[in-house]
Amino acid sequence: MPGLLDMILGYDCNLWCDYCTIGPALRGRALSTAHALASLREGRAQGLDALSITGGEPTIRPDLLAIVRAGRALGFADIKVQSNGLMYAHGDNLARLLAAGATRLHVSVHTHRADRYEELVRRTGTYAAMVGGLERAVASGAPLVVDLIVKRDTMADLPAAIEWLAGHGVRAVDLWYVSLTDANADNVASLPRMTEALPFIAEALARGRARAMTLRSLHVPRCLLGQDHPHAWDPGADRVVVVTPEATFALKDSRLAGRVKVPACTGCPFEQVCPGVRPDYLAAFGDGEIAATRGRPPSRGPTRLPIAR
């Protein structure tokens, strides 16, 4: 059965984003080259025909090109590399990656604002490299998706970010809702209520449609998106096998996936396609927003401390 092998090579990174779920203890963990190659072979034996290579930051791995070449030689038809794009701004790094067999690029921009980017990624002198890497990715002609993070201090900038990306030639954007898991579990101030973020998400989606861009929203239930529900994307709906330095599992079982159906989900027209709500979100806010869309009373409230304002 066809599907995607999502390989997390390791957790080390050349940035330290203020919402990252990877803490210091994980930074040293990584797949060995031998483990990565064995996972490629096992994935193909299981019929997986697409490969995603991510991290951490995979472009700082000296064996990345060898792993990409091995994936191509084994017959993976589509090979995506997920990156913050910084290394693409230097030398022929991007050209060599594409020559090795990468067919698709995902670049995490986080935020488009020059006055916010380096504060968010917590490394000075990186904004120009991010922009330069993004411009090279666009110029390469390879299929490209840009990732933006939806959190309390970026949500209002989403519409302007879409305009900025369109001006740089980007044609596809994914909107990722921040997660309170692992190293970001206590950063409760980063997580906005979805009803607070939705006006900005809706405007960003509208601007993307007006420019014939492809926009996808992750981790916001379709019932809350309303008429924008066609933009909802659940990567775990397809067959995705995740390989990490610790374990191998189906993406639909990830802690970052929506896994909880609340009482208001019963009878919802999206019940069969919606993966549910993330546990970290329910712990922060309960199910009142979702219940309200269905005209029902909430069944649960927050179970963690209120978010500081």
TrEMBL record:
<keyword id="KW-0411">Iron-sulfur</keyword>
<dbReference type="InterPro" id="IPR050377">
    <property type="entry name" value="Radical_SAM_PqqE_MftC-like"/>
</dbReference>
<dbReference type="InterPro" id="IPR058240">
    <property type="entry name" value="rSAM_sf"/>
</dbReference>
<keyword id="KW-0949">S-adenosyl-L-methionine</keyword>
<keyword id="KW-0479">Metal-binding</keyword>
<dbReference type="InterPro" id="IPR013785">
    <property type="entry name" value="Aldolase_TIM"/>
</dbReference>
<keyword id="KW-0408">Iron</keyword>
<protein>
    <submittedName>
        <fullName>Radical SAM protein</fullName>
    </submittedName>
</protein>
<feature type="domain" description="Radical SAM core">
    <location>
        <begin position="1"/>
        <end position="222"/>
    </location>
</feature>
<dbReference type="InterPro" id="IPR007197">
    <property type="entry name" value="rSAM"/>
</dbReference>
<dbReference type="Pfam" id="PF04055">
    <property type="entry name" value="Radical_SAM"/>
</dbReference>
